[in-house]
Amino acid sequence: MQIILGITGGVAAYKSAELARLLANQGHRVRCILTEAGARFITPLTLTSLTGEPCYGSNPDQGEWRANPSIEHIELARWADLVVVAPATANMLGKTANGLATDLLSTVLLATRAQVLWAPAMNSGMWENPAVQANMARLLSFGHGIVEPGEGVLACGEEGTGKLADVASIAEAIRFHGTPKLRSLNGRKVLITSGPTREDLDPVRTLTNRSTGAMGIELARAFRDVGARVQLVLGGDLPAPWGVETVRVRSAQQMLQACEARWADSAGLVAAAAVADQRPEAPAPEKVKKVQGPESLALVRTPDILATLSSSRRSDQWVLGFAAESQNHLEQALSKLKAKGLDAVLVNDVQGGRAFGAQVNTLTPLTHQGQHPSLGPLSKDRLAQEVVQWWARQLEIRENAQLQVIQP
């Protein structure tokens, strides 16, 4: 992707260098535009060195970093697939919202037909000012995007909302805005479960499994990127992805309740969570001490979340399950597909602990029509993208078949 990174005046401008480096390392072409105020916080040489691309600015006297002053704003506006302003000051928000162009960056922002993404950073009083909020709302009405500022201690020493969002979140927003949307998923609510559940034995010990939730989180990102409105029910400790509505849960019962509250409004379910199948019959209210002699633990089954949701689904809803198996993978997965009334199941070979954590993974899809070619081995982020593309094709096939039935 070809990205214009606009950098305005603010202490947070130093983070733009990290963002530029990250985007370049991800394979994007990044050209930076500095405002005069931005150039007081970070140098063109730094940005050029990190991106391998020219750095542009508003001062025609700075010839060493102004590649071509003739109709430069039009060339850059056409070149960009995405224009990102990080940090974005109240001044630049106001100028662009009201159609003003007083320097190169503001002129490019008016001339471009590319998607524009803002990452504001300013004092909390400025951010909360009605004029700034009105300007931001107007830009959003134009179709621009925003990475909301965070809360914390600001450069001025005050606490409040106004910190530049972390670089990883801005990069995720760029990924979302730069990914083509898929017709079969765009605008559809998708419910995703991810991570392990934990069943308390006592206030200290838990019964759980080796899942981290990494695959489910990458699936949430991948569905988000193609336009789905993702609702993520997440167990474990990994951070939730940017732009995804997330509810944290601990036990299988909590996960079921969270899913049931959201299932009716969803188009489909991606059940990637590793739900503990058992819980203690009677969790101890205090830490259990060591005693002499044999010990025993009475277990009872936890609710079957996937079967429960699948049994209550409407005809227009779909259910995508996962099967982590250590033996007889396809046979076990096929049984799960039929017994729980799923539309598809993706088989995960976890023999020997493979597939857990940050390792590469392979998934084999099964539908009622049979086995599909395996996806992977790939890193989990790439694998999640392949899963979404595969499932979107299956949805299109199903929709086309339904249309043929309806037509006389």
Description:
- By secondary structure, the chain is α/β, with parallel strands linked by helices.
- The chain has 2 domains: 2-178, Rossmann fold (3-Layer(aba) Sandwich), CATH 3.40.50; 189-287 and 296-406, Rossmann fold (3-Layer(aba) Sandwich).
- Helices cover 35% and strands 24% of the residues.
- Strands 9, 12, 13, 14, 17, 18, 19, 20 and 21 form a 9-stranded mixed beta sheet that branches. It has a 6-stranded parallel beta sheet with strand order 3-2-1-4-5-6, sandwiched between helices. Strands 7-8 form a two-stranded antiparallel ribbon.
- The protein is globular.
- The model has no long low-confidence stretch (mean pLDDT 90).
Summarize the structure.
The protein has 408 residues and is α/β, with parallel strands linked by helices. The chain is built from 13 helices and 21 strands.
Number of individual domains: 2
Query: What gyration radius follows from the Cα positions, in whole Å?
Result: 25 Å
What is the CATH superfamily classification of the largest domain?
A: CoaB-like
Enumerate the spans where pLDDT stays under 50 for 5 or more consecutive residues.
none
CATH 2nd-level architecture of the largest domain: 3-Layer(aba) Sandwich
